[in-house]
Design a protein that fits this description.
Order of helices and strands of chain A: HHHHHEEEEEEEHEEHHHH
Mean pLDDT of chain A: 97
Order of helices and strands of chain B: EEEEEHEHEHEHEEEEHEH
Strand content of chain A: 5-15%
Structural class of chain B: alpha/beta
Distance between the termini of chain B: 53 Å
Low-confidence stretches of chain A: none
Strand order of the largest sheet of chain A: 2-3-7-6
Mean pLDDT of chain B: 93
Radius of gyration of chain B: 22 Å
Oligomer: heterodimer
Structural class of chain A: alpha+beta
Shape of chain B: globular
Number of helices of chain B: 6
Strand order of the largest sheet of chain B: 11-10-9-12-8-1-6-7-13
Radius of gyration of chain A: 21 Å
Chain lengths: 379, 254
């Protein structure tokens, strides 16, 4: 057993930490308040190769491993959870799915600009009536010669308003059940693909979320990602990768909650002592540090399994479930430690608490993770 | 074409040093980094190469753990590194460091220009650069904030207290540079991964003539104590007068 990161992973962590402190942290509160997608920041992230870390260099990526990507998502999220997540879904799902299931031509055409960070990707699966119950989706792709015609409404699509490349999941043969869903790569600007307006959210506010509507949207069969009927399997593989990212994002939130709690509790004096010396507070911090360590190991282990080419679906769900729930639990505690000051806009812990909630919901709710995990262990 | 050597030191990241209740420093869980000043020196060297053509060789003296620092340095743009490595090289004094660097440089790396940070981020004695120039018998300008190289000479703008001095030195020469010389880049992912593929020449202690005994012995390191005073003043005229008097008394205002 070896708990040591490689020298490269350690150096990359230092570098992204410095990057986040310099470019992400100073704007995090502002982009949250204004629900702004920081285009200038993503340009810088692209320049450093941070938008395609685990994608091979021949496809525009940086050629590192998936664990490195998790470390980077964690460190960015420590400064700004929205930014960390946008990187996570772009790389972990959009880029990874094309890498894994796209043909050579699709990789050259779509993956290269995505992995270089010139384009943004979106994962288009959820519908108003189909969240955890993916099979309840109603969007269809009707075959018409060499084309498919898509109709339906997708919702809660991250990067929806601004993506250049949409990975869309819909029924090509509803009667075929689990083998009736297919996935398509559809570029922005395709007639009939209509991105919606940004939703106003409780947290993760600078991440752009919207509906994506398909109205007689004609796409060529060359845009099929993988075989017809492989959509659901592709989506589940996307989730496995994406969940490691959400786990990493949650670890970043937890680390930030701990950082803030340590700093504040050493400064804040009540009853003649810094509150860090009061057991009520120090034990909260002890629990926070312990859960952070556990969440981080679960996350890194899931990413490591992926890098070893081993199954990691169960571990990704465990990491995501644990890290997300601990992030929620401890950001509430972090606000508690800050007292009234933590309830004021501008306090970092206030943003962390709002940002944490979504990690228990998207890319599979905590309940969905428990379904995956129990399905695995009760097999 | 300019063959540049840039020297760097792998130092304790002071953010991880803890102060014990007795005032001692606890280094048990420290991490390391390239000395802040040297990061700027490396950036200056790389930019100068981009301007003039040639090569940059990063040179360091340190214990085997500094291998990570070598990779870090290479990710910042140098073409290759020379690493004088020995478990005892972690605690050299400036005269010893300069002697080791001097031997390594004269035997392994042809150069026109050597760039060092103004001092190291840990002990900041500011001696290694000038001592190295002395060892190699080349001219030296310290505290340089701007560098230009033209027709076999280096023009160095030195920032010294109260004024700026411009020196012209024949190459080969050594300069120690201030952080203002260049803002270091943050290496991208590929820069870090590519660093592992660059050449590192390792030099062991047995390849050097004897390392001289230290001229300086550090007997103890203790945390500095900053005495703080707290006195309250209001915006009333009387209090403002009192405030000014208090500042004068402590020499803050003259």
């Amino acid at each position: 057993m070896n708990f040591q990161l490689t020298e490269e992973q350690e150096l990359i962590r230092k570098n992204i930490r410095e990057f986040a402190a310099k470019y992400v942290e100073p704007i995090a509160a502002e982009i949250d308040e204004n629900e702004r997608h920081p285009t200038e920041l993503f340009k810088k992230l692209a320049e450093g190769g941070w938008m395609g870390i685990p994608i091979p260099t021949q496809y525009g990526g940086s050629g590192a491993d998936y664990l490195t990507n998790a470390i980077v998502v964690e460190e960015i999220s420590r400064s700004c959870s929205s930014t960390g997540f946008t990187v996570s879904i772009h790389v972990g799902i959009a880029c990874m799915l094309i890498l894994l299931f796209g043909n050579e031509e699709q990789k050259k055409k779509y993956l290269v600009p995505l992995a270089k960070g010139e384009h943004m990707g979106a994962f288009v699966l959820t519908e108003p009536g189909a969240g955890t119950d993916v099979m309840a989706a109603t969007t269809t792709a009707a075959k018409d010669g060499d084309f498919y015609v898509l109709n339906g409404t997708k919702t809660f699509i991250s990067n929806g308003p601004l993506a250049d490349t949409y990975l869309v999941f819909c029924w090509t043969d509803k009667a075929a059940g689990r083998k009736g869903m297919s996935s398509f790569i559809i570029p922005r600007g395709t007639p009939g693909l209509i991105p919606g307006e940004h939703f106003h959210k409780m947290g993760l506010r600078s991440s752009q979320t919207s509906e994506v509507v398909f109205k007689d949207c004609r796409v060529h069969k060359d845009n099929l990602l993988g075989k017809e009927g492989a959509g659901l399997t592709n989506a589940m593989t996307g989730f496995d990768h994406g969940r490691v990212g959400i786990a990493a994002q949650s670890v970043g939130i937890l680390q930030a909650a701990l950082d803030e709690s340590i700093r504040y509790s050493k400064e804040r004096v009540q009853m003649g002592n810094p509150i860090a010396r009061h057991q009520a507070i120090s034990w909260m911090i002890a629990d926070m540090a312990t859960d952070l360590e556990a969440a981080r190991f679960l996350t890194y282990h899931a990413a490591w399994l992926k890098d070893q080419g081993k199954p990691f679906s169960k571990e990704a769900s465990m990491a995501k479930l644990f890290a997300a729930e601990k992030a929620m639990h401890h950001t509430i505690k972090a606000v508690q430690i800050h007292g009234g000051y933590g309830y004021i806009k501008g306090a970092k812990v206030e943003r962390l608490m709002r940002d944490a909630k979504i990690t228990e919901i998207y890319e599979g709710t905590s309940e969905a993770q428990r379904m995956v995990i129990s399905g695995n262990v009760l097999r | 074409m300019l063959d540049i050597i840039v020297c760097f030191k792998w130092v304790v990241d002071e953010a991880f040093i803890r102060r014990t209740s007795s005032g001692d420093l606890d280094f048990s869980s420290v991490d390391y980094k390239i000395s802040e000043y040297d990061r700027n020196a490396i950036e200056a060297a790389v930019r100068l190469r981009e301007e003039c053509g040639g090569s940059v060789t990063a040179v360091t003296v340190g214990p085997p753990e500094a291998a990570k620092g070598v990779k870090d340095a290479l990710s910042r743009g140098p073409d290759r590194a020379v690493f004088a490595e020995d478990p005892l090289f972690g605690g050299l004094d400036p005269s010893q460091t300069a002697a080791v660097l001097g031997q390594v440089i004269s035997s392994k790396t042809p150069f026109n220009l050597i760039i060092c940070g103004e001092g190291s981020g840990d002990v900041y004695s500011q001696q290694t650069g000038p001592r190295l120039a002395e060892f190699l018998g080349i001219p030296c300008a310290a505290y340089v904030q701007k560098l230009t190289v033209k027709e076999g000479r280096v023009t160095a703008e030195r920032k010294v207290e109260g004024f700026i001095e411009v020196d012209s030195l024949p190459l080969p020469a050594l300069v120690t540079v201030l952080p203002d010389i260049a803002t270091p880049r943050i290496p991208g992912v590929k820069d870090t991964l590519m660093a592992s593929k660059k050449a590192v020449i390792k030099v062991g202690k047995n390849e050097l003539t004897a390392v001289p005994p230290p001229l300086l012995k550090t007997k103890s390191v203790r945390a500095a104590r900053v005495e703080r005073e707290c006195e309250k003043f209001t915006a009333e005229v009387e209090d403002i007068k009192r405030f000014v008097a208090a500042l004068q008394k402590r020499g803050v205002l003259k």
